[in-house]
């Protein structure tokens, strides 16, 4: 007998409730303490997650602030003008406006151009900072935590160096050491490269000093504990450690002062700093026991440089335990009855959306793109939204494939039609043209120096042009067998471009090659492929009448087994409305007499006959890129790395 899911869930709920109630009554008193401790640890773990999230958000905000400065027109104008006073005024104003302790600008060599806090000192190198060095090397922004030595803090200003100093205070159960003070600074830092015309010309970096700065710890305490007091003390508190030293905290001493400089225990230090793991449990903090969590703070090089701590008074949970015992049995009984009553409602609530999804899936299998209308904000709602996105993606993919197929079929039909037409008319036109050219050439020789010479020369020139068009049609229509041989694309490119470099059209054009080393050989008809390269290069030259650069690159992807060839020019570009017509026969934007409009159609046909693809992207006024992809006909065997 088939048992439906609704009955299974109902029976399961009833069984679970009855077993849970019975077991809770029998062993509840023994487990309640563990449950509360577990709840305490879960709460603390949630709070440490929240604290870490806020800490990360602060760094993210700092990163966004610094990035906005680096890309602002006002800043770039000041930087490029090399007016130090203007740049200094701008950076100082931004530092104060954003409340940053440090906001500096370096050049491309990592040397300080100006300091927002101490403008008199500049020219020193900060390449030792990981965030600055990586921003220059990797051309992108970085943000995270870092430790600044006192010597560097003093460069930013004696007041900043003084803020970093924390007196070491030993407390019961803290790890032992021989230090008196901690004078290093724990910083939140962000750097952003200054990019002008595609080149890195410097870095902007900003930082906040966390030592003796209580904004973060008090903000987190207010958020997660709402500044709640318990038994004449704060119910929970937050701390930031630099290594093992409290440098920012709202943990209080017996005199209500902040317990700065106190050290963490040896056990916590080994777990968090030495092993890089989260520590969760009961800890003696300064003068009393807390349910605590410690999590490492890492720098940009993934080294542990400090910790974030949150804790809740253990006494709070002990009192909750005593109060809970009084009502425990009544709660178990009431909860069991309520759970039984609510189980049917929840089962219906859970199953209804799933039924909707199942029905929609069946419709999708029949080709109907029907979305589901489930607006719940739980996991079922997430599943429904993901399902609707999938429906949209499938529909978009199908429409795109349909459009691409129709476009390719249309192109193939046009080329096939032209091929059939060309083979029928080319020979019929070519014979009369030969007669016209022969007799007009003879007449031109006979009438040189007369009033008829110019008209006869026009006849000869136009006849030659017609002959060229006919030859192009024949070349386009001819479906000769490909003479393939194992060839290297890089070699074919070099041969084709070496001949063109001496052509007068390329005298003011720089040809740059960026060829992939160890490009695998593939089967090609070299003559046809060279004609493709020649045609693309000449088209690029025609698009750069005033000179420019033609960049030719090759790439190979072992994963897709494709060789990619790019021809990129810096010419006048192609209007968007003309790009779909590029491969149409006889379409040309050149002046009359300078092109037949068959070059790109022939090129398209050659690439297709090699099982490849050709694509064009262009931006008017900036240039054009033609991308060719040629597949390998045999699978390559790559040696395994030892």
Concise account of the structure shown:
Helix 2 runs antiparallel to helix 3 and helix 10 (379-446) packs antiparallel against helix 11 (453-477). A hairpin with a 2-residue loop joins strand 6 (185-196) and strand 7 (199-209).
- N-to-C CA distance: 59 Å
Largest sheet: 5 strands, antiparallel
How many distinct helices? 14
Poorly predicted spans:
634-642
Helix content: 40-55%
Q: How are the strands of the biggest sheet laid out side by side? A: 2-1-7-6-3
Strand tally is: 21
- The gross shape turns out to be flat
Overall average pLDDT: 83
Q: Give me the Rg, rounded.
A: 38 Å
- What share of the residues does DSSP label as strand, in percent? 15-25%
Global structural class = alpha+beta
Please explain how this structure is put together.
The protein has 642 residues and is of the alpha+beta class. The protein has helices spanning 5-71, 73-81, 84-98, 130-138, 150-156, 158-164, 215-224, 266-274, 314-365, 379-446, 453-477, 489-500, 526-542, 599-609, and strands spanning 102-107, 112-115, 142-148, 166-167, 181-182, 185-196, 199-209, 229-230, 233-234, 236-242, 245-249, 279-285, 288-298, 304-313, 485-487, 509-514, 522-524, 548-557, 562-569, 613-619, 623-631. Strands 2-1-7-6-3 form a five-stranded antiparallel β-sheet, with helices on both faces. The chain has a five-stranded antiparallel β-sheet with strand order 11-10-14-13-12, with helices on both faces. A five-stranded mixed β-sheet has the order 16-18-19-21-20, with helices on one face. α9 packs across α10. Residues 634-642 have low confidence and may be disordered.
